[in-house]
Amino acid sequence: MEGGYKIRERNLTVEMPAEIDHHSAQHITSNIDYLIEANGIRSIVFDFNRTSFMDSSGIGILLGRYKKMNYAGGKVMVIRANPSIRKILTFSGVTKIMDVYEGLPEQSDRI
Amino acid sequence: MEGGYKIRERNLTVEMPAEIDHHSAQHITSNIDYLIEANGIRSIVFDFNRTSFMDSSGIGILLGRYKKMNYAGGKVMVIRANPSIRKILTFSGVTKIMDVYEGLPEQSDRI
Amino acid sequence: MGISNEMRLEFDSRSCNEGFARVSVAAFMTQLNPTLEEVADVKTALSEAVTNSIVHGYEGAIEKIVVECRIEDDTFCVDVTDHGIGIENIEQAMEPLFTTKPDSERSGMGFAFMEAFMDSIEVTSKPNEGTKVSMKKKIGCGKSKFER
Amino acid sequence: MGISNEMRLEFDSRSCNEGFARVSVAAFMTQLNPTLEEVADVKTALSEAVTNSIVHGYEGAIEKIVVECRIEDDTFCVDVTDHGIGIENIEQAMEPLFTTKPDSERSGMGFAFMEAFMDSIEVTSKPNEGTKVSMKKKIGCGKSKFER
Ligand SMILES: Nc1ncnc2c1ncn2[C@@H]1O[C@H](COP(=O)(O)OP(=O)(O)O)[C@@H](O)[C@H]1O
Ligand SMILES: Nc1ncnc2c1ncn2[C@@H]1O[C@H](COP(=O)(O)OP(=O)(O)O)[C@@H](O)[C@H]1O
Fold this sequence. Notes:
The complex is a heterotetramer, with two copies of chain A and two copies of chain C.
Chain A: E1 4-8, E2 11-15, E3 19-20, H1 22-39, E4 43-47, E5 53-54, H2 56-71, E6 75-79, H3 83-92, H4 94-97, E7 99-100
Helix pairs in contact in A: 1-2
Chain C: E1 3-12, H1 17-29, H2 36-57, E2 64-72, E3 75-82, H3 90-93, H4 110-117, E4 120-126, E5 130-138
Antiparallel strand pairs in C: 1-2, 2-3, 3-5, 4-5
Helix pairs in contact in C: 1-2, 2-4
The structure holds adenosine-5'-diphosphate (ADP) (2 copies).
One adenosine-5'-diphosphate (ADP) is lined by residues 48, 52-53, 56-57, 82, 84-87, 93, 98-101, 106-111, 131 of chain D.
């Protein structure tokens, strides 16, 4: 399993892999959904620090998890997205419905 | 033109490119042979510092220049060859006929 | 100058080949001295088309996908072909957010990404025969190419 | 398990495609979790075979070269085929230092490199019909493979 998962209280932080495509997305999605169920997760932080490639499969992961969290009154956030990832997040409209940070949230560089 | 060429007196130092194959070898060979002619070069140092890939085309460059220099009483030397390049130099017998250094010649780590 | 270089890549419709296809196409494209952004754009568009052949065209069955690349002057052309189920209504399929697989995490943005990141896209398809997606992108906008 | 994944790459016999072919094959090979040394060995052997098709098979003319890769359990198989001039005497061609192009900087070590860096090599050729070089290498020596 590529990438890492950290849980603190009911928050899940997902370290996204280097390449997010349909292949890697299948694994990430099933891992996250298992962890949400098992730990009553209420908010998710997607950390794109190591990610250099993403296609629309990544958007599928984000929107799917957003719906789940939103339904339960929780939140989803994206951090440390590089310019090429931000281009894709912006184009897909993801930036309109969830908080996306270039760095860490404290640096308040929300785009 | 990839790689660099430095001339001091009648010595030529050739900075070899990242990948030495038949494609890049064609250019390197014609550049070196031109410089040999134009400057009366007597010795050549091949610097493999930036080189991560080499096939037998690289051996062709070395042996061809060795013959030229040897004929004129000059010398040929290889410096800063990484383990994968050294494997190829050793296998091809090049290490038996010319000096090959892992680092710079002062460090006297001739293999 | 006409067509100056071309390649054809055929591989199994396994999701583990998606990354390999992107690397191959990006490596072939380097001859045009593209910017990193241009390479990323082409990789994204290619990834969408290849994923669609795997997910929609063959619906998970293991068959062949063909990727053909041509360099025509400063234009990079890439065609992705499958012999899968094909598309009934191409216009509808290309509408943003339209997807026939909403439950398998498809966002319906594949074609929109291809259109956004390439200069042109042409889709030909026939139900039960397969689908061909042809995309083009001009590289370098007049910047000099050179043979090293 | 039988053949578990395969690809076929066809490209113009231009020397600028040598690097692209190496990158493609190396990317396809990563599924076997090879060591860096194993990747380097396969790249070198592939480069020799592709170069031979360009230099000897087609003697500089632009025709097609085909590279086929298969993963059979933990063995990586790669075939390089051209439809060029072919080899009259295969045994002699494979002798170390034998070359028919000494003046164009060929060292005559191509086949020796392929033999050294792969586990096995088989050459079939017919004058005026072409040449096929089939090479195999076991990867990982029993180390675990995993699908990520
Ligand atoms: N190669 C293909 N074969 C069959 N149907 C396809 C193919 N590519 C796309 N489609 C159809 O077009 C629809 C829209 O595709 P796309 O915009 O990429 O979104 P998504 O892949 O997220 O569904 C798909 O849901 C599918 O019905
Ligand atoms: N694909 C090929 N088509 C025709 N002849 C070939 C081919 N590959 C090899 N040969 C012949 O075999 C000889 C030896 O090849 P090799 O060991 O690779 O050395 P080199 O390429 O340096 O000549 C070549 O000089 C050539 O005559």
